[in-house]
Design a protein that fits this description.
Structural class: mainly alpha
Number of helices: 9
Helix content: 40-55%
Radius of gyration: 23 Å
Order of helices and strands: HHHEEHHHHHHEEE
Length: 231
């Protein structure tokens, strides 16, 4: 019964914009640390088993075992990554600073009051939603009705999703920004260079071939963009 409860509240897909924003933002910073050869010296005894164990624990402390056998606190380990990233990348740009601030806020809230992350972190939000549903309907966590509620939480239609109404606004783009991004990729991206070339040839009635890293007009020179960071 307890495992069923945990299975329901721990989904793999993100619904809340803030959750997706933090996941991708913090991953980017950790990859930046890796590229700079500045990763904290942290090694778990068994990473897969540890992650599974953590996913079944709803409240702190979240304890893990290091490769040398000593115990450690998972939030403290995440804090070490945050501290190193902040030291190296704070002030790099507004987005980096915003991710660092959100990351720190999430770590502090998980340690002191996880419920304050309703609307920010998906598993906290889903547990709150399903707990309230059980209470209002007078049912237990083993009731099959919860399975449909779990699916509705992750519904891709914003008008049907049970999760999106809880979104706290962090990481949400305006509709205008979304419309602009559909037709105007970031200036430093390969997508932007590719779209510029497509606009040049689309009205010239010429056969062409299009790939991720190349645009070729038949019988003319092929334009290649092998480095996505140098468009």
């Amino acid at each position: 019964r307890h495992f069923r409860r945990l299975h329901l509240i721990h989904g793999d897909s993100n619904v809340l914009p803030a959750s997706l924003y933090l996941k991708t933002g913090t991953t980017r910073l950790v990859l930046d640390l890796l590229e700079a050869d500045e990763m904290p010296a942290i090694a778990l005894a068994d990473a897969v088993t540890t992650l599974r164990s953590l996913s079944r624990c709803l409240r702190p402390p979240w304890r893990v075992t290091m490769s040398d056998g000593r115990p450690a606190d998972a939030l403290e380990l995440l804090g070490a990554y945050h501290e190193r990233a902040a030291k190296l990348f704070r002030g790099r740009d507004a987005e980096t600073d915003d991710v660092l601030d959100g990351w720190w806020h999430a770590l502090e809230a998980l340690d002191r009051n996880p419920a304050s992350l309703v609307g920010t972190v998906d598993w906290v939000t889903k547990e709150h939603l399903l707990s309230e549903f059980c209470r209002s309907e007078g049912i237990g966590w083993d009731h099959p009705w919860l399975e449909s509620q779990d699916l509705e939480y992750h519904h891709i239609d914003p008008t049907r999703s049970l999760g999106l109404p809880f979104a706290d606004g962090h990481g949400i783009c305006s509709r205008e920004a979304i419309r602009t991004a559909r037709f105007d990729p970031p200036k430093n991206s390969r997508a932007h260079a590719r779209s510029r070339m497509m606009r040049e040839i689309k009205d010239k009635d010429l056969p062409y071939a299009l790939d991720w890293e190349a645009v070729e007009v038949v019988n003319q020179k092929r334009t290649r963009m092998l480095n996505p960071f140098q468009p």
